[in-house]
Amino acid sequence: MAVEFVGIDPDTDRDHCPTVWADGEAQEVLFQGWKPTPATQAQCEQTSPANGRVPDSEAIVRIPARMIPMIREACDAVERAQLR
């Protein structure tokens, strides 16, 4: 697996570190973020088309909007890998 570090939350305290990686080989973007509160989890599940629940094999994570440039960069890295 060729995982490429893209960026970390610029406002991080290094103990709570939302992070973005790109895996060009698997053509995936990976996120580390904050777990949602139970209330947020419930709101997401209420609007989910997947039978109203998040499968045990998946997770919801929160990523701050200030990381959007890093998310775009990770998406671009995955797209570039598709062209190779």
Account of the 3D structure:
This protein is about 30% helix and about 20% strand. It has helices at about 40-45, 70-84, and strands spanning about 5-10, 20-25, 30. The protein has one domain. A hairpin with a 4-residue loop joins strand 2 and strand 3 (about 30). The protein is α+β, with helices and mostly antiparallel strands and about 80 residues long. The radius of gyration is 14 Å and the shape is globular. The longest helix is centred in the C-terminal third of the chain and has 16 residues, at about 70-84. It contains 2 helices and 3 strands, in the order βββαα. The two termini are about 15 Å apart.
| Beta-strand residue fraction | 15-25%
Class computed from helices, strands and strand pairing: alpha+beta
What's the pLDDT, averaged over the residues?
Answer: 89
User: Largest sheet, order of strands side by side?
Assistant: 1-2-3
Largest sheet: 3 strands, antiparallel
Radius of gyration, Cα only, in angstroms?
14 Å
Instruction: Note the run of SSEs as H and E.
Output: EEEHH
Large-scale geometry: globular
